[in-house]
Amino acid sequence: MDDPYKTLGVSLDASHADIRRAYRTLAKQLHPDLNPGNMEAENRFKAVSAANELLSDPEKRAQFDRGEIDATGRERAQPASYRDYAEGEPGRRYGRTGPQPGGWSAEDIDDMFGKMFSEGGRSGGKARMHGRDELYALTIDFLDAVNGTTRRLTLPDGRSLDVKIPAGTVDGQVLRLRGQGNGGVNGGSDGDALIETHVTPHRYFKRDGQDIRLELPVTLAEAVLGGSVEVPTPAGPVRMRIPAHSDGGGELRLRGRGVPAHDGQAAGDLYATLRMLAGGPDAALDEFLRNWKPEHPADPRRTMEAGQ
Amino acid sequence: MITIDLLVAQLSGLRRQDLDRWISNAWVRPDGNAGTYVFREIDVARVRLIQELRDEMRINEEALPVVLSLLDQLYDQRRRMRELSAALQRVAPDELRLNLARHLARQD
Prior knowledge:
Chain B: This is Chaperone modulatory protein CbpM. Chain B: Pfam families: MerR_2. Chain B: It comes from Telmatospirillum siberiense. The complex is a heterodimer of chains A (about 300) and B (about 110). Chain A has helices spanning about 5-10, 15-30, 40-55, 60-65, 80-85, 105-115, 140-145, 220-225, 285-290, and strands spanning about 135-140, 150-155, 160-165, 175, 195-200, 205-210, 210-220, 225-230, 240, 250-255, 270-275. Helices cover about 25% and strands about 20% of the residues of chain A. Chain A is built from nine helices and eleven strands. In chain A, strands 6-7-11-10 form a four-stranded mixed sheet. A three-stranded mixed sheet of chain A has the order 1-5-4. By secondary structure, chain A is α+β, with helices and mostly antiparallel strands. Chain A folds into three domains: about 5-85, DnaJ domain (Helix Hairpins); about 135-200, HSP40/DNAj peptide-binding domain (Sandwich), CATH 2.60.260; about 205-290, HSP40/DNAj peptide-binding domain. In chain A, a hairpin with a 5-residue loop joins β2 (about 150-155) and β3. With about 110 residues, chain B is mostly helical. In chain B, strands 1-2 form a two-stranded antiparallel ribbon. The termini of chain B are far apart. Chain B has helices at about 5-10, 15-25, 40-55, 65-90, 95-105; strands at about 1-5, 40. Chain B folds into two domains: about 1-60; about 65-110. Chain B has five helices and two strands; from the N terminus they run βααβααα. At the A-B interface, α2 and α5 of A face α3 and α4 of B.
């Protein structure tokens, strides 16, 4: 053991009060009940206590100063410290949750492991726990989402999953694959793979619930005279008759040619909005229009008020 | 398991009226009721701790509840750590424990 004067950091002629003060200062820093698990503090505290005991007893201090006793001989066995009990089972007596033994609360488990592990409330060591769900993102073409398809997804752990994309899948829809997430614990069921779909927009189809909309360009002649034209639909092109005297902006419906029937919903329709294209310069057309006298002249903007 | 008389006799510098006050403040929680208190080992150690906090470290009784509450919270957490460690010993495979240890050691 070191020199007790050095241990307390006092001079050889320190007064009794100096020694008490030095001891108190060190005890506040080093007391083992205030430093649980800190071996260095514990050992220093023992040394400081022994030094204090020796130097605060005038008789022993005098003996030590005269070299009659050494610093080690006086170390008294420390009684069991509060910490020895407080950390263990008896410490529950003064714990937050009272003296009853018991498992961790859901909050405790959340703190340590994150939310999903506390499912089912209180848990002992053998609790069955549902495996964690795993979330993936999957980008799907517009037409695959409308018609349905199967896609192979390679997971980060190397497994691959065949994901069935049902017909009528919408952007942001989450597909749940049961049991393809993380494994359950202690016989708990496996988690699910959750696949969030992102549907890329189509060049000309737009989704409107079960219906599909598109803008269908037609020539002046097709609009005025009518005729049969080929219209793209999600299931492939179909022929449609354009009635004579159709106008730009007019809407034609192809029944049952929208999103296919799925999950008890009937198939949607396809709505084609006509967009009339005058086409490039055409001398004959120019010539005709210059000489043309409409049968029923009308101002197409008559319902618009100026400045509105 | 000792009675209050024995406890007061055993701990030098402990006055009966101080101990009675600590009990009524619930700083010390022996079994039984006034007159028939029984102190377990942890209660004795806690009385000694309170004595040291007050006499050696000059923490007066107004500040003591704060100190005791912080200590109780500290030991709650330490007990939880031990429970966690025991649970890991029981249920976690060696490989997982090794990985955990490596992961924790890497965080600086």
